[in-house]
Design brief:
It is built from 6 helices and 2 strands. It has about 170 residues and is mostly helical.
Length: about 170
């Protein structure tokens, strides 16, 4: 039981770290690509990562690159590595980015991505579509990943001779 708990804890911590770093790295890539000047950034996953561009000539590109690359980068890594644990992390990133964008919409924190997206002109329907796709597909994929990882780490119960005879 201790090994299974340690495995799951490690997998979830890794998923959180990958999600926060790839999401924020996406903002940094987007802002830099569009000619923004990065004045401050923090990628540490144990508090809210951030990046600040001054100026940011195309804030919508900078803002959207976070949740888009935060989903696509882990997915690309999972394709390359072909390991179930990486698919678990990728699926976590898919649902977590959708949940973050969805909950940030209602948070009343003007510095989070969704209020900034709306402030800079993103139509709420586009945000809604992103949330529906990432949360819907993410739920289905992440649930399946959890089931695969759980059955892989759950020891099989030995069956008695009576049970084996009954199942024949």
């Amino acid at each position: 039981m201790a090994i299974r708990t340690a495995y799951w804890t490690t997998l979830l911590i890794a998923s959180w770290c990958v999600m926060t770093v790839t999401h924020e790295f996406g903002h940094i890539v987007g802002g830099t690509f569009c000619g923004g000047t990065l004045v401050d950034a923090n990628l540490l996953p144990w508090h809210l990562p951030y990046s600040i561009f001054q100026p940011d000539p195309h804030p919508l590109v900078t803002l959207w690159c976070g949740p888009i690359l935060g989903v696509l980068l882990p997915f690309a890594i999972a394709i390359l590595l072909r390991r179930e644990w990486m698919w678990f992390i990728s699926d976590f990133c898919l649902i977590a980015n959708g949940i973050y964008i969805g909950t940030a919409w209602f948070s009343n924190d003007r510095f989070l991505d969704t209020p900034q997206l709306i402030k800079h002109g993103t139509q709420p329907s586009l945000i809604l579509i992103y949330c529906i796709v990432t949360i819907g597909l993410g739920y289905w994929r992440f649930r399946n990943s959890c089931m695969r990882e759980w059955t892989k780490t759950t020891p099989k119960k030995p069956t008695s001779e009576l049970d084996q005879a009954h199942n024949k």
